[in-house]
Amino acid sequence: MSSMYERCMKVMPPAAGRSTKLGIVSAKGCYLTAEDGKEYLDFASGVAVCNIGHNHPKVVEAAKKQVDQMIHGGHNVVYYESYVRLAERLVELTGGDTMVYFSNSGAEANEGAIKLAKHYTKRPAIIAFRDSFHGRTLGTVSITGSNSLYRKYYEGLMPSVYFAEYPYLYRSPYKEEGWKPYVDRLEEMFHTLVDPEMVAAIIMEPVQGEGGYIVPPKEFVQEVRRICDKYGILLIFDEVQTGMGRTGKLYAYEHFGVRPDIWTSAKGIASGFPLSAVIARKGIMETWNAGAHGGTFGGNPVACAAALATLDVLTKDGALENAAKMGEYFRGKLDQLKEQHDCIGDVRGLGLMLAMEIVDETGAPDKAKTTEIVSKALEEGLILLTCGTNKNVVRFIAPTIVTEKEIDKAMEILEKIL
């Protein structure tokens, strides 16, 4: 009998690639069960989607109940309870002075955020960051700077996009100068590339995801906020991967002492149901007139019900606190591992968004060894993913419900491999 992988290769294009060849038949908590019956500890979490674990019983219950009531109503046609209540809940959790628009995916939310910024400011230009990832639509590919393959054959893209340098201090070209040169280079752009009065928004990941799980200095993020305020530029945070408890806070901006004008949420928002949100200050959202944006499936009733249950698990059942606690525990274990192995050049992250950068004896990125680590981990029953523009970073995306026992199991596997 053919495997799911073999069957899939006959009917889907190479573009639909996978990190593994696993065919999965069931999922629960931190574990996946493959078609051959083998169980895998999943520290990929569906790429930061199953932030409260797979098939959380509260999410399953909420979704089943909503399916019995209504699967689709159409948010362009009618109002329904899970949709309105989720918007109310997100506004409550984000300060009470925001409004929410629902879409289906992270890319769609980021595209919406860019449209909102342009619509509000009446300005054409966007500043993004090198090594960023914001999505695969033509608009979000235009503001993505982590892989030229994503842009190949799709030029020309959205015009008036400019790229600043993200403070990747482990490999900084500015040696001991820290984060300040990155601010200087950003401000120089206003003299050499684009007048600030033409810039609608600066969009950034508060922790870069695909770029390598890079955590910027708090001071740098605060300087970006200052620059935006100085020139009337909107600050957009792409919280698609960093949001919904991933960093030990509901949203990562809470770590930096700043608040964006607009931010996006997806991936973990509904524990696997397609849903995303554009969240912004009320004064900005209120100018987004009818017809300026839209979509058929955004805010699906079942997805919204799942999101409400997800938020309850995070904010009422202790998953957020556990993410912060287990993130600290996991980070400590990875720091110890780094002390023992020269191939680990750096350990970094916030909460349960953690990574280790793999290097060779000269300190250069070691893609081959990184690939080998992830491959051998899979053989041992641990699912991991890579990231970084050089594909030499192992990322750990454990669910917020993870325990010390599961972290210890993952560490035993890593120690054995290394």
From TrEMBL:
CDD domains: OAT_like. Keywords: Aminotransferase, Pyridoxal phosphate, Transferase. InterPro entries: Aminotrans_3 (IPR005814), Class-III_PLP-dep_AT (IPR050103), PyrdxlP-dep_Trfase (IPR015424), PyrdxlP-dep_Trfase_major (IPR015421), PyrdxlP-dep_Trfase_small (IPR015422). One of its GO terms (molecular function) is transaminase activity. The keyword Transferase applies. The keyword Transmembrane does not apply. It holds the Pfam family Aminotran_3. Gene3D superfamilies: Aspartate Aminotransferase, domain 1 (3.90.1150.10), Type I PLP-dependent aspartate aminotransferase-like (Major domain) (3.40.640.10). Its cofactor is pyridoxal 5'-phosphate. NCBIfam families: PRK08117.1 (NF005993). Belongs to the class-III pyridoxal-phosphate-dependent aminotransferase family. This is Aspartate aminotransferase family protein. It comes from Jutongia huaianensis.
